[in-house]
Amino acid sequence: MTKIKLYIEEAFNELVHKVSWPTRAELQSSAIVVLVASLIIAVVVYLMDASFSNIMKFIYGMFY
């Protein structure tokens, strides 16, 4: 039981004293970067899907 208590105390001390937490401004900036990147990737995937769908419709249309 003392090993568990020691582990929890060391983990807490590390989180409080050794970890550098981002400021609110840094966190907001990072969140905006992630949001923009996610939107760009979503648009690229949508365009790839739509173009592949149209290509396949064209190819299947040639045979039927």
Taken as a percent bin, the fraction of beta residues is: under 5%
Q: What does the largest sheet look like?
A: none
Number of helices: 2
State the helicity in percent bands: over 70%
Structure description:
The structure is a single chain. The chain has 64 residues and is mainly alpha-helical. It has a domain at 23-64. Helix content is 89%, strand content 0%. It has two helices and no strands. The longest helix is centred in the C-terminal third of the chain and has 40 residues, at 24-63. The termini are far apart. The mean pLDDT is 95.
Topology:
Layout lengths: L1 H17 L5 H40 L1
In short:
It is elongated and about 75 Å long. It has 2 helices and no strands.
Give structural attributes:
64 residues; 0% strand; single chain; 89% helix
